[in-house]
Amino acid sequence: MGRFVELLQSGGGSRYGEGVFGLSIYGGGDAVVQLPVGLVLKDNSFEAKIDRQDLMFADGRVSYGEEIEERKLVVEGYVDADDRAAHLALMNQIRYQACLPGQRLRINTGHYINLARLRSLDDEPVEGMDRTVARVKIEWQVDDPFWYAESEETRTFAMGGNGSFQIDLSSLPNCHRGQHPQITISSPVFLPVGTSQITNVTDGGLTCRYGDPYLGFGNSATIDCVAGTVTRLDGTTKTNTIRYFEGEFLRMVPGLNDFSYVGPACTLTFKWRPRWL
């Protein structure tokens, strides 16, 4: 949580009265609602799902995997306004946006978390302040526990056949250990691709293979390691081709990732959205 407290206090947000916004709610097709500076992230904790018997290796090591429990997210603090009417208008706007489905909570450095549903919103006026100052607490259910960067990362590699390449995540040292990419295999316009095998040597040799007899002559296939889907794109036509896929959906770990490729000439494009716990 310390990382996000630092980011929240870095400024750079829009202004409401004399304060600086560090948090905002957006998504679902509605306008962005900036939260007053008095509201800060209070609870960003999480718990891992662990089954030691299933995940114990022969040498005694334990893999804690990728599974994180759903959690709650709490934003709270004091909100003040010029008068009671202004306070009620602001809270009505926040309440309306917080209840909408498909919302995101954004911090002012371009990171967001997906909000599943509103659990509670408390608005308690402070005594002696003419009901213009209130202690506000907002609590959301969060089914997807990760914070995401709003900007995606992309790396492209022209493979002339069997070979190797690297993806360096050293610039993102605090990222969660599993960065799951979308991998697009693009074929030359004059050749079929056949079977392609991609291995992340750094991640214990995790490997996937794609052998689509119809991949070639300028079309492409995308292995979505986030959604667990495989799709071939022919012009504007998308076809579910997961039957031609085998192995594991790949991920990238912090630091330098060494990949090997076995297969015919093609272009590989890795696209991912960095995420944090």
CATH topology of the largest domain: Elongation Factor Tu (Ef-tu), domain 3
Question: What does the overall shape look like?
Answer: elongated
Q: Name the helix and strand elements from N-terminus to C-terminus, one letter apiece.
A: HEEEEEHEHEEEEEEEEEEEEEEEEE
User: What is the overall number of helices?
Assistant: 3
How many domains comprise the coordinates?
A: 2
The second-level CATH architecture of the largest domain is Beta Barrel
Low-confidence stretches: 1-21, 51-65
Helix/strand class: mainly beta
- State which percent range the strand residues make up: over 45%
* Helix content class: under 10%
Largest sheet geometry = 6 strands, antiparallel
Give the termini separation. Answer: 8 Å
Topology readout:
Layout: H1 2-8, E1 15-16, E2 19-20, E3 23-27, E4 30-35, E5 39-43, H2 52-55, E6 71-80, H3 84-99, E7 103-107, E8 111-115, E9 117-125, E10 133-142, E11 147-149, E12 153-159, E13 163-168, E14 182-186, E15 195-200, E16 206-211, E17 220-224, E18 229-234, E19 237-240, E20 245-247, E21 256-262, E22 266-272, E23 275-276
